[in-house]
Structures are given as C-alpha cells and as structure tokens.
Design goal:
The protein is mainly α. The protein contains one helix and no strands.
Length: 68
C-alpha cells in the first residue's frame, strides 16, 4: 500500500470519527429536548384535566348565558 493511499484512508477515517461524534452530540441534545417536551406535555395534560374537573363541579354545562 502506498503512503498516499494510507494517508487518504486515515483522513477518511478521521473525518468519519468526527462526523460520528457530531451526530452523537446532536442526538443527545435532541433526546434531552424530547424529554423536556414530554414533561411539559404531561404538565399541560394535568392542568387541562384539573380545569375540566373544576368546570364540571363549579358550573352547570347546559346553563344558558344570562343574555338569553
């Protein structure tokens, strides 16, 4: 194997390692963001359920507004 071919292979390998590390970092950041968004969704679902429970117990749903 010639030196130039060996250098080309080493260069490609180094580039692939760098790309793999960058992709891994990006994937890690995306997973952290997904985890955070899932937490926010669960909190919002809880709030909506609380609001729905409050509406069900505090008011009559079929009640006509006062202007009728």
């Amino acid at each position: 194997m010639t030196d130039s071919r060996l250098e080309a292979i080493e260069s490609k390998l180094a580039y692939q390692e760098l790309t793999t590390l960058q992709l891994s970092d990006t994937l890690h950041q995306q997973q952290k963001q997904i985890d955070h968004l899932e937490l926010l969704c669960q909190q919002l679902i809880g709030r909506v359920q609380e609001m729905a429970d409050t509406v069900k117990t505090d008011t009559v749903i079929d009640e006509k507004p006062p202007h009728y």
